[in-house]
Amino acid sequence: MNWFFITVGYSGLFPKAPGTMGTIASLPLGIAILLYFGPQTLFLATILITLIAIKAIDKHERTSNEHDDSRIVIDELVGMWFALSIAPGIGFDTTALLQWNNGIAIQIVLSFLLFRFFDIRKPSIIGRIDRETKGGLGVMGDDIIAGFAAGIASAMIWQGVLKSGLLG
Asked: In the chain, at which end, N or C, are there fewer CB atoms within 10 A of the end residue's CB?
């Protein structure tokens, strides 16, 4: 169960781009929770998963003696879900995904792209956490901050689009 959990249903076992595959694997459930239960529920579920994942990664690192195994992608799920829960600062229903004027579909795509950008490039404090923090918190920490940054940036971009009147 631990390996299934920390590799997000074994998506981290893909030989090429396991982080991107883990992020993609996390999207359907994250979007479903977002649409059916709302951003607050997704945010709280992400906090719970984060706490469980830190302990699971610590356990894995003790037995494998390897820090930040590339096959561990639960950190990508957490980062992506934080981004998804922060970006849509608007109310919507289950039909909202197909309505471009409320921005949810755009924010999902933006959140994904921005999260992958921040997670791969690791600017500023994201990179510092990645380099200097050990254990499960170190594995999870950079993705948590990258998720928050992606969610905030996505919301700001969408608000800029709305204020500019680009969509009419």
From this structure: C
Tens digit of each residue's pLDDT (9 = 90 or more) over 76-131: 999 999 999 998 755 444 555 555 556 778 889 999 999 999 999 999 999 999 99
pLDDT for 91: 47
Angle at 129 (CA atoms; ends 5, 31), nearest 5 degrees: 40
**pLDDT, tens digit (0-9, with 9 covering 90-100), for 45-63:** 999 999 999 999 999 999 9
When divided into structural domains, the chain yields a total of: 1
Domain of residue 76: give its range.
17-164
In a domain, 5, yes or no: no
> Does the residue 11 lie in any domain?
no
The reply to whether 69 falls in a domain is yes
Residue with tokens 């200097």: 132
The Cα angle at residue 47 between residues 24 and 39, in degrees rounded to 5: 70
CA distances for 102 relative to 92, 140, 164, angstroms: 8, 31, 15
Give the tokens for residue 149. 């940054």
The answer to whether residue 113 sits within a structural domain is yes
What are the residue ranges of helices labelled H in 38-123? 39-64, 74-86, 104-121
